[in-house]
Amino acid sequence: MTKNSSLFLIFLIGTLFILQASSQSVFAHYMMGNSYPSDVGNFANNIRLASSIGIDGFALNIGPDDWMADRISKMFNAATQFPNFRLFISFDMAVMGGNPIVLTNYMQQYCNHPNYFKYQGRCFASTFAGESQTFGEGNVNDGWQRHFKDPLQAAGINVFFVPSWTALGPVNMFENHPVLDGAFSWAAWASDNQYKNTDEDNIYIDGARRNGKIYMAPVSPWFFTHFSYKNWIDKSEALYPKRWEEIVSFRPELVEIITWNDYGESHYIGPIDGALPDGSEKWVHGFDHQAWLGMTAYYIQAYKSGSYPTVQKDQITFWYRTHSKNARRDDVVAPPDNADWAEDTIVVHALLTSPAQVTVQNGGQTTTFDGNAGRNTWQVNFGEGNVIVALIRNGQTLASKQGDKPITNGGSLYNFNACVNSFEYGNGNNLSFRAIRA
Question: Is a pLDDT exceeding 80 seen at residue 345?
């Protein structure tokens, strides 16, 4: 081999490495704590479904339960059936405690698994919280460096550490914490009565660029939880398409969907299976969210390519809450905090192959929206009764669907979860997915 050809080969390998390291990937946060009854088949079905819409892997939220190690093993076993699907560990530091050996043991066990996610050739690791965990050192940076990264480095494992230390805020995140290789923000929802915007994202991104780090951005469709000890909503009605539009616009290195299966907080997009947190079945059962998967596939394509793909089949997704925020229920738990932030609206998201009308029938009224080819999002105030959405083109009704549940202000439960529905028209197949029914 000549000197010039050798230099070209080195350049080519370096270029491919840069492309691999900087390519956009999407992960979904997977609550292993909800997987007690799951086996290899359950995990494989979830991986298959996630892969079908363009999700590249799962961030495995793990805790200290005695049975957890077995389910993690089964998840990695299932992943071997899908060579291109990646898993990485996201330590739930809200419950993991202060023994770093547990963390390093997991990394040593799975880092060399063929499905483990590596970024820039290094084993990727994340957290939920952990920003106050010092492991006995004087500060959080030294704690994680000396008791997590350094021992793993000594064992031959180079970790790419991208935790969610959201409580610290994005300002000077990287300057103050050199242990970080990147940052993941859990703030997928605004903290007040507005939709999530990119203000914090921009600070993270600026800091990452200045320090040679990366940013993993969050996207989530919803937030509602209704336990006696944990009871609030975040503004959610039109959040999902708005947030994906932002993600496509600024294209962070990585994206994490919050979540695939966190039923207790109502932001799941995967099937309802496994084990639900005690009490959450009251607002989860009957509220399947898999109808969000088709539009998720579309935005994942746009995020990865940098441009919105041509729609190959008409797809209508619509969602709503099943009672007004002003309804009063005979519930043992009070109305959720921030209930006044909710919007009594039906949200309609239409991916159209060509201009068409979309109608919404509800509460004795029919509202017609004129849609353009491509993506469209509308909201209309709701009333009691069924919700029927139809696709009309050139005066002909092509397809329609009645929502799975009516809107009614009667009942005994404050349920601010989303009733999500979708239907399609046409022969294209790029947005199709196979739902898993529990």
Answer: yes
